[in-house]
Design brief:
104 residues; globular; 4 helices; alpha/beta; single chain
Length: 104
């Protein structure tokens, strides 16, 4: 999974032709730590998608642009457009995240 370090990397990642899943997170968030416990298994099950993480605190303007109010949030992009958004309240279990991804 790619860890975004610049806004240019982020823009390049979301403009991919296929589905790209971005995980908006931070270092201090307890729910993000919980997501970390099971996200590797989910990315293995969904290898047909590109994956990246982005720290909401390092890129507040991107988070605002994408209406990321809570963390962790999973956003799905295709050709630069956001096509789905799993808000933090619904991203707390592997079952919820898998259901979200399977519905794409």
């Amino acid at each position: 999974m790619k860890n975004i370090k610049t806004e240019q990397e982020y823009r390049e990642q979301i403009t991919q032709e296929g589905l790209t899943v971005g995980i908006f997170t931070t270092t201090w968030c307890p729910d993000c730590k919980r997501l970390d416990m099971f996200i590797d298994e989910i990315t293995q099950e969904h290898q047909d998608k590109q994956w990246f993480t982005i720290d909401r605190d390092e890129f507040p303007e991107i988070s605002d642009e994408q209406t990321v109010m809570g963390i962790p949030s999973l956003l799905v992009f295709k050709n630069g457009e956001k096509v789905a958004h799993l808000h933090s309240a619904n991203a707390k279990t592997p079952e919820a995240v898998n259901e979200f991804l399977n519905d794409l």
